[in-house]
Design brief:
The chain is mainly beta. It contains 1 helix and 8 strands; from the N terminus they run E-E-E-E-E-H-E-E-E. A 3-stranded antiparallel beta sheet has the order 3-4-5, with no helix packed on it. A 3-stranded antiparallel beta sheet has the order 6-7-8, covered by helices on one side. It has a two-stranded antiparallel sheet with strand order 1-2. Strand 4 and strand 5 form a beta hairpin.
Length: 109
């Protein structure tokens, strides 16, 4: 059995945290965009882009994320103050078929 050590990453203040494999590299991109990947990886990258919506009600956020789920055939999850939409998108990069996994989420007090 192989054990992978995970590190908790806190980005964007205390707004978002997630686990990544210990050996992954973090690259800050333009603005508040971050990229995480295994050393020497050609694929399997995690890109994190935060968006901030102010003065938006919980109902409006649920509506926006539910619309995204329906548009992309994804799944809508709600637990406590967290709302997440997940979907996958098949496409091509330089003629090679790839599968992108997307998550959109928010946390409300």
């Amino acid at each position: 059995m192989t054990t992978t050590r995970l590190d908790r990453v806190f980005d964007f203040g205390d707004t978002l945290s997630f686990l990544i494999p210990h050996e992954w590299i973090e690259v800050a991109e333009d603005g508040n965009n971050y990229l995480y990947h295994s050393p020497n990886a050609d694929s399997g990258w995690l890109r994190v882009n935060p968006l901030t919506l102010k003065n938006t009600s919980r109902e409006r956020l649920c509506d926006l994320l539910n619309e995204r789920a329906e548009k992309h055939g994804g799944d809508f999850y709600e637990s406590g103050g967290n709302i997440v939409v997940a979907w996958k998108q098949l496409s091509q990069e330089d003629g090679v078929p790839i599968c992108n996994y997307w998550w959109a989420g928010c946390s409300l007090p």
